Amino acid sequence: MTAPTAPAGTSQPPLPPLPHWEEAPADLPAAIRQVKAALRARIAASGRTVEEVFGVVERLVRAEADDVAAARARGETVWPVVDYADIEAGTVPDEQVRALHRRGCLVVRGHFHREQALEWDRDIVGYTERNGFFDAYRGPGDDFFGSVGSKPEIYPIYWSRAQMQARQSDRTARVQAFLNARWKHESEGIRWFDPGRDSLYPDRIRRRPPGTASGGLGAHLDPGTLDLWMTGAYQRAFRHLFDGTVEQYDPWDAAHRTDGPQYPGTTMCSAFRTFQGWTALSDMEHDQGVLYAVPIPSAMAYLMLRPLLPDVPDDDMCGVTVNRVFPVSERWHPLLLEAVAGIPDVRAGDSVWWHCDLIHGVAPVEDQKGWGNVMYIPAAPWCPRNERYAAAVREAFATGSSPADFPAEHYERSWPDRFRPADLNATGRRGLGLDRAGTEPGRG
Fold this sequence. Notes:
By secondary structure, the protein is of the alpha+beta class. The chain has a single domain, classed as Sandwich (Jelly Rolls). About 30% of the residues lie in helices and about 10% in strands. Helix 2 packs antiparallel against helix 12. The longest helix has 24 residues. About 45% of the residues are buried.
């Protein structure tokens, strides 16, 4: 689609500026009212209405949602699937690359050998048991994952040998580089990130035993909360949604996304992730409380514009607020939830990836069959934002502390057998910013 242009011989006057708050405003309702009024005025100054701009996005998302629903009805696997061997050899079929771009999600078969993944799973069990984790465990440290009723389900463990070996593996680096390359990472004379270098973002593990009854996790997304509308960097990142050029919005454009702040909270992510992801440590059937997503990357435009419609109270962003994940609900987003699609069956060693803006959740399960174990490992390419966070990661790694993005639980500080700096390979050292070798992203 082509964006509207001004008639020949005329020029569009400058659009009104937007207020912005680089830290969370003290009076959230007042700030929401102010920024919504400014966004509406900016769209109007472009010569379009909010309803018109939203209608463009709604039609696009409707077509994608209908396609997902039809594929689901035919019994097809909505999630694209590729073999790790094809990523390593550079032979991923073009059809699958196009499917990844359209759906925003991927399953990588054989990312690790199954025996390696199962060994890592056993290693994590030994690591926690040797160090008395279950005696010391104080319950969930955040408001979101605590909702699954785990005892625990999400382990606040970051520095096991298994996790670090997987993070710094050449196989992981190849998959991350393949995924990063799907993004537009250079524009406006700036190289927004280095697609070939990951920042080794540390996250937790999940272990869910057979027989579990889990409430799952509701539909949500994780790139931010009110900061997506209220900070200068994100206002620039989503500029096409608010300046009359909505047809030019590209969910794969990294411009201005790699240098902005995020409002703090117990579920925040200070890093820029091109893809969220996890690596399976057990075999999992598709109907046993597994991940689902709304595989429509452009749905982010729908979510960003929906609060501006007149049926939403002026001090409300469709339920989005600070210190909570970004919720997706039947009340405000029923169209999007029509397109929910779960992952296919996976085996230990497979990895699962989804675009950082993709709506996702975890289905509930009763009397789970088999284990449901994963390591959370995203793609978080080297960029100014991730370089800053890497400094905090290095400190946490050195002391065995919980990383800054996560609750301050610090179980591993006294554990003698955690992964140590001497165990880092070249990829691990670069990912933590300990080695400067390699191409650095430009800043213009």
